[in-house]
Amino acid sequence: MIRRCVLILDVLILAVLLTGCMKQFRADIPYTDLVIPAPDFSTAPFVTTAEVNLRSGLEDETGVVAVLPEGTPVVPVGIGSECVCWKVASPQGVGWLYSRYIASRTTDAE
Predict the structure, then answer these.
(1) What is the set of domains in the chain, with CATH numbers?
(2) Partner of 52 for a Cys bridge, out of 32, 65, 82, 101, CB 3.0 to 4.6 A?
(3) pLDDT, averaged in runs of 10, over the chain (110 residues)
């Protein structure tokens, strides 16, 4: 009788552990084995025009990833549905900026 109870308990513990592991696995996101290289910020096509919050999402209420100083190089990696925000990569991380705080980098002509 005790062996049977221990076996049932072991099966229940295993089921709970497997259920927890399955919740962490997202089958709807395929694994592609694709590696994206980090951008070269020395040749980034855009810079910030003022000190600005790099946010984790499109809304003002989303968390701040970093505060980017004026002149920080950024590389666009996405755009918001209304073209008001760009998702950018910066030396401080990846996040969202209002497009009004982004300008083309000027190069010195010799």
Answers:
(1) 41-104 (2.30.30.40)
(2) 101
(3) 58 50 49 68 92 91 94 90 85 92 74
